[in-house]
Fold these 3 entries.
Entry 1:
Amino acid sequence: MAHNARGQVSEARSRLLGTATRLFYTEGIHSVGIDRIVAEAKVTRATLYRHFPGKEDLVVAYLQAVDQMERDQVGKALGSGRPAVDTVRAIAESIADGIRSAGFRGCAFLNAVAEYPDPEHPVHKTVLAHREWFLRTITDLLAQVGETPPELAARHFVMLRDGAMAEGCLADPVEVCDTFLQGVDGLLQHRTGSTSRGSGAKTA
């Protein structure tokens, strides 16, 4: 990461990454060329290549920035001191908030991997690294909820999340989020053996 003389992240790099993030997410990665990014970020090609040797590096940086944002969101839930079951619900609620937000265009990682299907490509590997972290985080939380092995339930949570992220830009996001949150609540009820809904759950 490039820094200026004061040790701060370069303004040009931040502007490039911000512009690329907006365009990649809203319009797709392959459809956005370097010339467009350079023009909208108001930098030269030389400046772009000084910070990012190629478009592939810019795409990876974009996904890493989204990854960090999601890690920060999850970190807030993990650091709240709440019981694991409530932490899982808080993470689900944050996902639902994203789906209901203006300009939602699906999951940045699922969108990216659809454009980079080669498992050996750096972009594909960046997506997998993010998903492995998320699955591991949910697995660790669900290990604290109920007594059965958590792996299946964690994969179930991730599949619910993936489905909601895909459906959220195709159908009514409110209904999608209600369905997603009810699914997460049902998963938690199954693990705890409870039939009552938590205070943060949606009712049918």
Entry 2:
Amino acid sequence: MQEGPEDTDPTRAADVADAMRVLARERFLPADQHPHAHEDRPLPLWHGQTSSQPSTVASMLRLLEVPVGARVLDVGSGSGWTTALLARLVGPGGAVLGLELDPELAGWGAGNLAACDLPWARIEPATPGSLGRPVDGGWDRILVSASPRSLPEVLVDQLAEGGRMVIPVRSTMHLVERTAGRTRVTTHGSYTFVPLR
């Protein structure tokens, strides 16, 4: 494993910034958190879940390098914000599946997503005891917004050839890339996330 350079592609950064401007965080927060939507810190949802701070979300999305038309899996979709941002990045020719373990939060996040008119994205409850959702050919991109204690091979195995996964492991952001049947893992700074269950 090695330390990787930070992504500095100005076009990619502009795409992420545009998505975050169009899909404001406030739309994905409980009413009592709306006054804090522009603060760069995690905000509480419920049942111990949080809305990640905007700078962290932006860093993860830049690192993920989401192409137009990609198939993307969003693990720990929470309020639906990251699922909506991913949907904006892939466009109508892509597909995004958000998975959330808490059924109540999954339903609320799905409602938030439905209000954004992004029909190529959806949120479903995750299957307890199972990580991700395998698809034929694998996912082009996987975003994980909760922290496992070690890199889950079951998610690595769900990546397509040429795929990328961004996942915080313990407190370190990891980028996993699959190329020519090989897996490359680099680390990209320290962050704090709720544990992956």
Entry 3:
Amino acid sequence: MRNLDEILAFNREFVEKHEYEKYQTTKFPDKRLVVLSCMDTRLVELLPKAMNIHNGDIKHVKSAGAIVSHPFGSIMRSILVAIYELNAEEVMVVGHYDCGMSAIDSKRTMEKMLERGVSAQTFSTLQHAGINLHKWLHGFDRVEESVKNSVDTIKNHPLLPPNVDVHGLLIDPATGRLDVVVNGYERTKDSE
């Protein structure tokens, strides 16, 4: 069975049996927290369990590598909406060890694009438009530095209220152990 067909068949039964009732909550995060994490499959259930997060507790934003690649991109917009419209008061950036973004080879990724039907002309057009695909596809060399960079991008954003604490953590995708990279409470205290 194809993925969409399987999902829709399951969903019909899910709705008919009222399984959704145990997940009902409001759109406002109970812990007043927005979490930016990596989209890694190992974190789908592990991250909430390791952080004692339940349905309705947080706003969860995901990107490859938990990277805020542009201060005015969709990731930062989502964080700001969570703060201004949905009552989040803190931000946590959660990267993880053994992240695939540390091994991204932009040249190899572009070769895969060609193999799957993206034309060389498209690459040329993007290059002439000033888009550096190698830079855009590049991940990072050290996950700790990447988390710090994302925290700094968020904390120094001109539209972020100064009283919002921004933390940076790393999770072990095998055990769920959390390591603090940036303690936002200490940063706030230092700036007072």
